[in-house]
Amino acid sequence: MKTKLLAVSLIFSLISAVLFYSGTTSADTPSVYNAEQSYGIANEAMFYLRVLKSDGTASSTGTGIILSPAGTAATAYHVVKGAERMEGVMADGSIISPIKVTKFDELKDVAVLELPSPAAMKQKGNAYAYLPLRKDVLKHGEAVFALGYPLKNTAIITEGIVNTPAAEINGRSRILTSAQVASGMSGGPLLDTHGQLAGIISGSLRTMNNIHLVVNMEDLRSLLPASFK
Fold it and tell me: What predicted TM-score, i.e. pTM, was given to this entire model?
């Protein structure tokens, strides 16, 4: 009888250990999102960015990415170079204005933006939706998604891989990706499959068909406040 009780006890202990181990592994493994889910994550945290002339018409357009609930945002510098007035058009059609450039690096093609307070813009919960920043360097062949606004009311998503996480292009380090990029997507997010911002769309590589340039997270973080690092 004692032998049977001991055997049952050992089996129960083994099952409990397996269940505990499985639960721990699941909790520590980040979620993986497909293209539809990734679009849902990014859609509320990016905006159509308009650089305005004195008459209110747009001199250039691109895409902006929100990085914090308070309204820190980013885009590609070439979109906002020389801008005096800017506004953002959110996914729901609401206008975010005025937008200010707080820091930039022309060589890296990065600009950090400041949006008006979320309360002033009547954002839900007095906070902007935002994208978390990826900490790890991307790897060759990793799946990624590119998003942005080629048209005012039309955000799109494309899917590809990381061709290389670091290529020296005109004296700048760039991520190269096969995720397609259209005019107007500059400044938009490159997402990894965990819903994290992995880079900022910068442009296309003319010497290679269907290979596109992305600013890496190190270059973005170099301009962000210490709270992001």
Answer: 0.85
Residue 76: band (very low, low, confident or very high) from pLDDT cuts 50, 70, 90 = very high
Q: How many helices (H) and strands (E) does the chain have?
A: 4, 13
CATH code 2.40.10.10 for 143-228:
yes
Task: Find the DSSP H helices in the chain.
Answer: 2-28, 35-43, 77-80, 217-221
Q: How far apart are CA 221 and CA 120, in angstroms?
A: 27
Q: How far apart are CA 121 and CA 126, in angstroms?
A: 8
**Candidate CATH numbers 2.40.10.10, 3.90.440.10, 2.40.100.10, 1.10.600.10; the one for domain 38-126:** 2.40.10.10
pLDDT single digits (tens) 114-124: 999 999 999 99
Mean pLDDT of 179-198: 97
